[in-house]
Amino acid sequence: MERLKPETAFVVVAKAPVVGKVKTRLCPPLTLQEAATLYQGFLLDTIEIALRVPVSEVKVVCPSQADVVALVSFLPPQVGYIVQTETGLTDALTTAFEQCLAAGYQKVFCISSDNPTLPLAYLLEAVAKMDATDIVLGPSEDGGYYLVGAKAVYPSLFSDMTWSTDTVLAETVERASHAGLRTALLPFWYDLDTGKELARFVQELAQSEAGAQHTRAILREVISRQSSD
């Protein structure tokens, strides 16, 4: 009997962990090599969280086929891949929604790749909220968002957006309202983009042994190496 396709897809926006191309704002305190290795841990942990959502599938949207080749080498085998048609976050999000909805998924959620301790409960809440709204957003403390979900393609939410600013969330909500779309918000979370955020993250990891196991292992190596230098 043919397996029924789950109605929900989680798409992680990602790229290959190439030294000097990812998480460079974490340098210092990290080296470029350490930042790239840590990003790989972020990505693995984020995907493992998404894989725990029942009756859903997880994919990665990335800039090129070369990224796919690199990511396949260490990501779980059940992860699917979407290659962007153009560069940039606008195209990543648009392509992810277009391809997943065309493939028959009823609910599509795009999430960032650097939230290794994002609570699973937030993803479950996003799926539940999607039943009664048009757009679900997971607001980040920096003014952006870590998740955006929809049941249809809304290019106007992403086109000509100035990303990585503290007004992205507010502008997205305004665009949705202008388009007559209902928006639901999840609890706030934070991205791991700067040394200050990384220091906060390390402190929080020390308070619990649960979660982010890939990231924890890499950080232990980094901290051990820095202590011995």
Could you write a compact summary of the structure shown?
This protein has 229 residues and is α/β, with parallel strands linked by helices. Helix content is 39%, strand content 16%. It has a seven-stranded mixed sheet with strand order 3-2-1-4-6-5-7, sandwiched between helices.
The tally of helices reads: 7
Element pattern in H and E: EHEHEHEHEEHEHH
Helix content: 25-40%
Structural class: alpha/beta
Distance between the termini: 59 Å
How are strands sequenced across the largest beta sheet?
A: 3-2-1-4-6-5-7
Rounded to the nearest angstrom, the radius of gyration is 17 Å
The number of E-state strands comes to: 7
Describe the sheet with the most strands. Answer: 7 strands, mixed
Describe how the helices and strands are arranged.
Elements: E1 8-13, H1 32-50, E2 56-62, H2 65-72, E3 80-83, H3 89-102, E4 107-112, H4 120-129, E5 135-139, E6 145-150, H5 168-178, E7 183-185, H6 195-205, H7 213-228
Parallel strand pairs: 1-2, 1-4, 2-3, 5-7
Antiparallel strand pairs: 4-6, 5-6
Helix pairs in contact: 1-7
Task: Characterize the structure shown.
The chain is built from 7 helices and 7 strands. It is an alpha/beta fold and 229 residues long. The chain has a 7-stranded mixed β-sheet with strand order 3-2-1-4-6-5-7, with helices on both faces. Helix 1 (32-50) packs antiparallel against helix 7 (213-228). The protein is globular, with a radius of gyration of 17 Å. The mean pLDDT is 94.
